[in-house]
Design goal:
By secondary structure, the protein is of the alpha/beta class. The protein has 3 domains: about 100 residues, Rossmann fold (3-Layer(aba) Sandwich), CATH 3.40.50.11060; about 60 residues, no CATH class; about 180 residues, Rossmann fold (3-Layer(aba) Sandwich). About 45% of the residues lie in helices and about 20% in strands. It is built from 12 helices and 12 strands. The strands form 3 sheets. Strands 8-9-7-10-11-12 form a 6-stranded mixed sheet, with helices on both faces. The protein has a 4-stranded parallel sheet with strand order 2-1-3-4, with helices on both faces. The N and C termini lie far apart (about 55 Å).
């Protein structure tokens, strides 16, 4: 993919948020092994219904596409079927939006049956409104001829029906998986010696590395957005108090998480809703880490898990300081705000004993309150 990114700053979005979102989009394209050749910026009070950016800007986009030989245009915002069709006709190349890119990444990274079904569901739900748009100008009909009864169905109608049938089938299968997982979790709910912990965080915050460090379980670790999608569950024992924690990793979040993803991965997010404790993993070396904490908190609120006890795990501190000794000279508590927190390096193992201690304390509290 040789891409041009298009960012539009509308009312309600600050300059910082606009630039941060476009930078993240570049990372998403690179996660698909694409190359960003150029960027086109625009400020406008509201989107143009036909092309989002207006005819004049669309023609400028066409010239840029031809000038640098791009094959794809990626918008940092959702586009309607009409806008995509018009922009593709003007530019002569594929036009995608932010959700298309995220779904493509998810499609590549899904490994388990559940993750694959969740991704397929999200893609079909995103595709459904576009089905008529794709065939909107096609007047051909199937089954409607001189020797048949009725006018038949438009190609778009057939595609919509098939998509809906597949969505129904996937939802039934995911509901079956959800019930299985519920039965598995049900055994843990009443166990006073078992602390249920959910790992959440922005994508590429280091959740898989932290899970590996805590549980010694082999996990795929990569410095890429959405490196892993599949839910992983492991145990951490606390022999000195006769208890243990079951830790479940979850899908990473991004800014403006597509609703199709949220809906499709609701089965996975049930793990967060039923957890006793949330470990919110943050890449503290990221200059925008505080905004990303807010993004994850908003998603937790959306799935009604914001009231859960939470430990803020500020990870990747090894990128900001030369050695673990520097942690002792800094009042890191200032970073946590009103949350319980700990600064660690999952990669180097720094300060992990402090995190173990906090988990142990929460496991002890559960036993006392049971």
């Amino acid at each position: 993919m040789r891409a041009i990114l298009v960012g539009t700053k509308t009312k309600g979005k600050t300059e910082r948020e606009f630039k941060q979102s476009l930078k993240e989009l570049e990372g998403l394209v690179e996660a698909l092994d694409g190359t960003v050749l150029g960027k086109l910026y625009q400020s406008r009070p509201s989107p143009d219904p036909a092309t989002y950016i207006g005819r004049g800007k669309a023609k400028q986009l066409k010239e840029l596409v031809e000038g640098i030989n791009a094959d794809t245009v990626v918008f940092d915002t959702p586009l309607s079927p009409v806008q995509i069709a018009n922009l593709e006709e003007i530019t002569g190349v594929d036009v995608l939006d932010r959700t298309d890119i995220i779904l493509s990444i998810f499609s590549q990274r899904a490994r388990t049956k559940q993750a694959k079904l969740q991704v397929e569901l999200a893609m079909l739900q995103h595709q459904l409104p576009r089905a008529f748009g794709q065939y909107g100008k096609d007047l051909s009909r199937i089954g409607g001829g001189m020797k048949t009864k009725g006018a038949g169905e438009k190609l778009g109608e057939i595609k919509v029906r098939r998509i809906k049938e597949r969505i129904t089938k996937i939802k039934k299968e995911l509901e079956r998986i959800k019930k299985q997982r519920y039965q598995q979790r049900k055994k843990r709910v009443e166990d006073p010696n078992l602390l249920k912990v959910a790992l959440v965080g922005y994508t590429n915050a280091g959740k898989s590395s932290l899970l590996h460090r805590l549980t010694k379980r082999d996990t795929y670790v990569s410095n890429k957005l959405f490196a892993t999608l599949d839910t992983k569950t492991s145990f951490v024992p606390f022999p000195h108090i006769g208890k243990k924690a079951v830790i479940t990793d979850t899908v990473g979040f991004v800014q403006d998480m597509p609703k199709e993803i949220m809906e499709a991965f609701i089965t996975t997010l049930e793990e967060v809703k039923e957890a006793d404790l949330i470990l919110h993993v943050v890449d503290v070396s990221d200059e925008n880490w505080q905004e990303k904490v807010e993004t994850v908190d908003k998603i937790l609120k959306k799935i009604e898990a914001h009231h859960k006890p939470q430990i803020l795990v500020l990870n990747k501190i090894d990128k900001a300081i030369p050695s673990q000794e520097y942690l002792e000279d800094t009042d890191m508590a200032l970073l946590y705000g009103d949350k319980e927190g700990v600064v660690v390096s999952a990669k180097e193992g720094w300060n992990m004993e402090k995190l173990f201690q906090l988990l142990s304390e929460h496991a002890q509290k559960k036993g006392l309150h049971s």
